[in-house]
Design goal:
Elements: H1 3-11, H2 17-34, H3 36-54, H4 59-89, H5 95-128, H6 131-138
Helix pairs in contact: 2-3, 3-4, 4-5
Length: 140
């Protein structure tokens, strides 16, 4: 078999799928164990999802919430990966490295602000109309 066909056969083999899945899980486990921000984002995401179920969000609203949570999670993962990659090559202070890290952090900030906006839109009226508030307000 010519070499060019062997290359294509290797590219499209499926035997490495479980190994790739294991490595991805190891990456998630590392982030969760050693990066505080990732734990905070994960716990906030779980809390938001459970609140969405408690508030009886519609299917589309829950999908929107899950996508928003995932976007913040992915932004933090990319930020961490960028920072670790840069730190692997140099620890010296350079203005361009600082700017790259600041921009990566800004991506997380934008995703988080978007998540807050989505949360206000999805939960705003539902939280205000919960019976807990009526009970607390009637205590006055």
């Amino acid at each position: 078999m010519p070499k060019r066909y062997r290359i294509f056969r290797r590219i499209f083999q499926f035997h490495g799928f479980w190994e790739s899945l294991r490595l991805a899980f190891n990456g998630l486990l590392y982030l969760f164990l050693y990066h505080r921000n990732m734990r905070i984002i994960f716990l906030c995401g779980i809390a938001a999802f459970l609140l969405g179920i408690y508030c009886a969000l519609t299917g589309l609203e829950l999908v929107t919430l899950c996508l928003t949570i995932t976007m913040v999670f992915m932004a933090e993962m990319f930020n961490t990966a960028i920072e670790m990659t840069i730190d692997m090559f140099t620890r010296k202070y350079k203005i361009l490295i600082k700017l790259v890290k600041d921009i990566a952090a800004a991506v997380v900030l934008i995703a988080s602000l978007n998540a807050i906006a989505v949360g206000v839109i999805l939960f705003g009226r539902k939280i205000v109309s919960l019976p807990v508030w009526h009970t607390l307000l009637s205590l006055k």
